[in-house]
Amino acid sequence: MTTQIAPRTRMSTRGLAIAASTAVAAGLLLVLLLVRLLQAGNVASSVPQFPLLGHPAPNFTVSVWNALGTGTQQSVSLASYAGHPRVVNFWASWCTPCADEQPNINAAWQKYKAQGVEFIGVAFNDKQADGQAYLHQQGVTYPAGQPTSDTVAVDYSVTGPPETVFINREGVVVDKITGPIDDGTLAQEIQKILK
Length: 195
Prior knowledge:
By secondary structure, the chain is an alpha/beta fold. It has helices at about 15-45, 95-110, 130-140, 150-155, 185-195, and strands at about 60-65, 75, 85-90, 120-125, 145, 165, 175-180.
């Protein structure tokens, strides 16, 4: 018995041309897709996440809770610190991450106030008695309290505390950190607004 081997079939020239064209077209589509993905990534990374970045910070006034009854300033506005770098921290007495970050913010306030950096604490959906107790317990000495307008959280796109906004000497928003801030990040952000 002899085994027969099937003859090899050859692809026609036309078939080879079609296969080559298909491979080239697929390759070009893949390259085009990669280029478009890179472009989309560049566009997405160049769009600021916080609409106030690079824009003047909206003014607001805070009824100061940690000075009431002491004969010191009863309210403070962001505009009263014109010409100074400013750190605005949105906090709440019921916010555990706020309490976790507060020692970092207190330390930064003590370190940078001699360089003209002003800090303002803005209570977010808090009650005065609870807020005052929190400020006392945490040893907050920079002005902090409730905003006199209901629009401050909206103006600063605050979704929940803690959130910290950094404003340079010209009154322009330089950055915003959402969530608790560590001392290293806080120092880096303050260096940006000191320039």
